Amino acid sequence: MSVDKLFQKKDYRYCEYSHSFYCLNCHTNRAMMIPARMIHHWDFKRYPVANVCADYLSNIYEQPVICISALDPALVEKNPLLSRLRSLRTVLSYMYDYIKVCKQKDDLLHLLEPRLYFMMGTEMMSIRDFEEVGKSAALHG
Prior knowledge:
Distance between the termini: 51 Å
Number of helices: 8
Shape: elongated
Structural class: alpha+beta
Largest sheet: 2 strands, antiparallel
Helix content: 40-55%
């Protein structure tokens, strides 16, 4: 049986994240944003992905695992919102230097914990961060 005939049976689904085919048990049409599409095409639509890919993307959703300058160095310059975010994060990094020596640093760091990485550099972002910038662009754009 040829590969074309195998995939015409509708027993498999294509995963937009892994670019592979999965059986119907492993791909239940869960829709997720694709990080590469967000970064390179400013596309925040949700696409059907295999369950294992959906689980992975859900697990890293709030983790700062995307380095903007490594993936698309010109993206920040092309996008005013990302440029503004980088500027604000630079200011936050200066504030972090003061927080580290503050007597109440433990309380302050606990409050900032969900996005403490914003104060520790300007390049790393999570899928959630990109989604929020994309929503902001849609509102102002």
